Amino acid sequence: MTATVAAPPVVNRPSPVRQSLLLSRRAIFAVLRQPQVLVPSIFFPLFFAALNAAAFDRITSQQPAFAAQFDSFLDFLLPATVLQGVLFGSTQAGTEMANDIENGFFDRLLASPVSRTSILVGRLAGGAVLGAAQALFFTGVLVAFGARLHGGIGALLVLVVCSALLGIGIGGFGVMLGIRTGSAEAVQGSFPLIFVLMFTSSAFFPRELMTGWYEVVARYNPISWILEALRDLISIGWSTGDAMVAIAVSAAIAAGSVALSLRALRRRLAAAG
Amino acid sequence: MGPIIEAQGLERRFGDLVAVDGVDLAVQAGEVFGFLGPNGAGKSTTVRMLTTLLKPTAGTARIAGYDVVRQAGDVRRCIGVALQDAAIDPLMTGSELVHLQAVLHGIPTRVADQRGKELLDRVGLTGAADRRVGTYSGGMRRRLDLALSLVHEPEVLFLDEPTTGLDPMSRLALWEEVRYLNRERGTTVLLTTQYLEEADQLAGRIAIIDHGRIVKKGEPRALKEEVGSPTLMIEVEGDPGPALERLARFGEERPCEPGMLAIGLEGGAQQLTAVVRELDEAGVAVRHMELNAPTLDDVFAEATGRRLEGADEPAPAP
């Protein structure tokens, strides 16, 4: 081994930022490399949009209040379609986290000098990027079919930001489940909850036309608050107030869920530790 | 300089179960140390504590002078870990994983890429570097796992059952790599195994662990010498009890599988004719008979009263 020249010493400085960036990239790649996992979250929202637009366009357009605000039912459905896709797609972050735990990759990360929050940031940043991409995709499809954004670029931007935040919010919830159960099946088992969250909001039907308990539940469902603010931005025009409501509620959900997943991670490390 | 791996009274409980029950350990820099024991003996749990993945219920451990609980971050910087079952993300490619691992350790990108290439080459994965790990064979995954645990050139390498489930060729290749690392780089290696031969071949010193306790510690050769006499194993027709009685004067009974009898044959091979004569006189029908120089299995048997060989899946001989 005389040929071996002493290599100059390399100083290893683990950087949480570099770690987070690379782990985020890994999370995005994970989705791109198994596009089949996105099929339900692309298919269902478009399916519901097509179905509802066909079924309700005539009825709702005869409602004077509705017709006054929306050009078509498709305009009404645009934010719901986007959020539905984001909500359905975001559980993937939790599934991936559970997979990491199941196949042992999580342990490999923990045995490396990785800042513990980088592991979460990586997963959730992946969810945010995915959410934003979905917002652009669904808006593109619906606009191609005749939906119109009266709020212009501003409305689109708010839609994208809210989707990214909800990507973190729902992703964080899935990640929390993934960390607590370590089972991809358990995370996927939470899928119906997201369905319920979506269908008990005013996503597919104007709240003004709801009655009884349905209206009450929809009124207090935070998804309704985001949706209605987005809807006004899209169908009426730019309003700073609406933009702030939509972003603030999405951000609050994201913050809450990040806190929950951080707590789950700490608990797991303390218990395993 | 003190030992590079040091544990005192290391203990881990899971509820009522005591998985590791007071392990003391002192491994010097440059050693290859083997942890030998059956499944569930506490090998992996000990490794998980030494690699900061699990906090001890009691006791302390230090790696390169750093406490595994209070200075976990420092410990993680100087150790390489390849856990059981090659923990790797099936969606990433070999080179991506090496790069990721390097960045996690804070190695500058340029150095990381160069070193990653070298490592993949060393473990014979250059051709598969850009393929997803999901398409790798078991042996390739283990080799990648080993490469991953080496990107930051760790002082101490932990290998938890590195060859379990591997085919004989892959096993030999991995042994060779461990020897190379130890010899050329001076890497200290702590490996766990349930294979006697692996411990015998690789480790300069071993600890036999059973039910969470270290029951024997030392150099394999010295341990085998301690056992002394070779083991005479006889399979007879029917109940081995009477035959065992007749042979009592030839040596101590040793643990063996049911239906067999085993004694430590004092005086060795010279006594064989006498043994055969004795069995003949007693009218014992012998089915099979063998005389073996002491193995680590005899060491294990003497310490625990059970045999390790054949207790689990048999080790495929390389």
User: H/E element string of chain B?
Assistant: EEEHEEHEHHHEHEHEEHEHEHEH
Main sheet summary of chain B: 6 strands, mixed
**Helix count of chain B, per DSSP?**
11
CATH topology of the largest domain in chain B: Rossmann fold
Regions with little confidence, pLDDT below 50 for 5+ residues of chain B: 312-318
Structural class, from secondary structure content of chain B? alpha/beta
Supply the CATH architecture of the largest domain in chain B: 3-Layer(aba) Sandwich
Largest sheet of chain A: none
Number of helices of chain A: 12
The CATH H-level superfamily of the largest domain in chain B is P-loop containing nucleotide triphosphate hydrolases
Largest interface, counted with CB-CB under 8 A? A-B, 30 and 35 residues
Report on the structure:
The complex is a heterodimer of chains A (273) and B (318). Chain A has 273 residues and is mainly α. Chain A has one domain (18-27, 37-272). Helices cover 78% and strands 0% of the residues of chain A. In chain A, helix 6 crosses helix 7, helix 7 runs parallel beside helix 12 (240-272) and helix 11 packs antiparallel against helix 12. In chain B, strand 1 (5-14) and strand 2 (17-27) form a beta hairpin. Chain B has 2 domains: 5-219, 3-Layer(aba) Sandwich (Rossmann fold), CATH 3.40.50; 229-293, Alpha-Beta Plaits. Chain B contains 11 helices and 13 strands. The chains are: A mainly alpha (273), B alpha/beta (318). Chain A binds chain B through residues 1, 10, 12-15, 18-19, 22-23, 26, 29-30, 33-34, 100, 103-114, 272-273, and chain B through 51-55, 73, 76-77, 79, 81, 83-92, 96, 99-101, 103-108, 111, 132, 148, 152, 184.
Question: What would a concise description of this structure say?
Answer:
The complex is a heterodimer of chains A (273) and B (318). Chain A has 273 residues and is an all-alpha fold.
Helix and strand arrangement:
The complex is a heterodimer of chains A (273) and B (318).
Chain A (H helix, E strand, L loop, with lengths): L15 H17 L6 H23 L2 H6 L3 H31 L1 H6 L5 H29 L7 H30 L2 H5 L2 H9 L12 H9 L1 H14 L4 H33 L1
Helix pairs in contact in A: 1-6, 2-4, 4-6, 4-7, 4-9, 4-11, 6-7, 6-12, 7-11, 7-12, 11-12
Chain B lengths: L4 E10 L2 E11 L4 E5 L6 H8 L7 E6 L2 E2 L4 H7 E4 L11 H11 L4 H14 L15 H11 L7 E5 L7 H18 L2 E6 L2 H7 L2 E6 L2 E6 L1 H8 L3 E6 L4 H6 L13 E5 L7 H10 L4 E7 L3 H9 L14
Parallel strand pairs in B: 3-8, 3-9, 6-7, 7-8
Antiparallel strand pairs in B: 1-2, 1-4, 4-5, 9-10, 11-12, 11-13
